[in-house]
UniProtKB/TrEMBL annotation:
It comes from Pedococcus badiiscoriae. This is NAD(P)H-dependent FMN reductase. GO terms for cellular component: cytosol. Residues 5-146 form the NADPH-dependent FMN reductase-like domain. InterPro entries: Flavoprotein-like_sf, FMN_Rdtase-like_dom, NAD(P)H-dep_reductase.
Length: 178
């Protein structure tokens, strides 16, 4: 079987974030059948949507958009490591999604959320957006402050979260684009 490519996106751009620590937990569980690339939205530094045309047209004029598009075209599956802020997902993630359109169609995506209540509200809201852009959403774990995640980002996931992460990767592998 050919190696599949999975992209792990760290969605939080806050100065004092823990998303990179949650992403490390995710990266340690990536099956060997996947070649991994990490994309950090803080480093990607996409400005607020600045393309003059519609994303659905795919006619990108800015280099940052072309790089983001090429990265997503080169992936077979996607994992979003995403925080929950005020019962929603963060603006940087929404912006990154809105920059593109055709690149998302058929791309399987798993969401690993973290926050109070395991980011259940943010994951629910995000699912609607991801389905609208025709991504194939795969269930992923949610880490909750005080039970499976410390405020400093130490993951203390229990067996249920570990299994949820393994199941997410198995489904992403089965649904990978190429």
């Amino acid at each position: 079987m050919a190696t599949k490519r999975v992209s792990v996106v760290i969605a939080s751009t806050r100065p004092h974030r823990i998303g990179h620590r949650v992403a490390q937990w995710v990266l340690e569980a990536v099956p060997p059948e996947f070649e991994v690339t990490v994309h950090d939205l803080r480093e990607l530094a996409l400005p607020f949507l600045d393309e003059p045309g519609q994303p659905a047209d795919g006619d990108y004029v800015h280099d940052h958009t072309r790089r983001w598009s090429a990265a997503m075209q080169a992936t077979d599956a996607l994992v979003l490591v995403m925080p929950e802020y005020n019962r929603g997902y963060n603006a940087a993630l929404k912006n990154a999604i809105d920059f593109l359109y055709a690149e998302w169609e058929g791309l399987p995506v798993g969401c690993v959320g973290y926050g109070w209540h395991g980011a259940s509200f943010a994951k629910s809201a995000l699912r609607q957006t991801l389905e609208r852009v025709k991504m194939t959403v795969v269930d992923g774990p949610g880490l909750a402050f005080g039970t499976t995640l410390s405020q400093e980002g130490e993951v203390t996931a229990d067996e249920a979260q570990e299994q949820s992460l393994a199941d997410m990767f198995a489904e992403l592998l089965a649904r990978a684009r190429r």
